[in-house]
Design goal:
With about 70 residues, the chain is mainly α. The chain is about 60% helix and about 0% strand.
Length: about 70
């Protein structure tokens, strides 16, 4: 196993995607090591997607002006 395969965080996105697909195919054929490797690579893919999709929340509206309910 090469050094780049042991550290998925250092892989490019396209390389990570192709390796994850390769390992998933091997895992579907019953290889237990391939199953674990595919899980690691796919977890890294999900982490990258989650990290790039985060956006800061808009500032909260001030509710001091009026309550959301009416008092009779």
């Amino acid at each position: 196993m090469s050094e780049s395969m042991t550290t998925p965080a250092k892989l490019e996105d396209s390389e990570l995607q192709s390796l994850a697909a390769e390992w998933r195919i091997r895992a579907m054929q019953g290889d237990q090591l391939a199953h674990r490797m595919a899980q690691v690579l796919e977890a890294e893919q999900r982490r990258r997607i989650r990290d790039t999709g985060l956006q800061p929340l808009p500032p909260a509206r001030s509710s001091a002006s009026a309550p959301w309910w009416k008092f009779w």
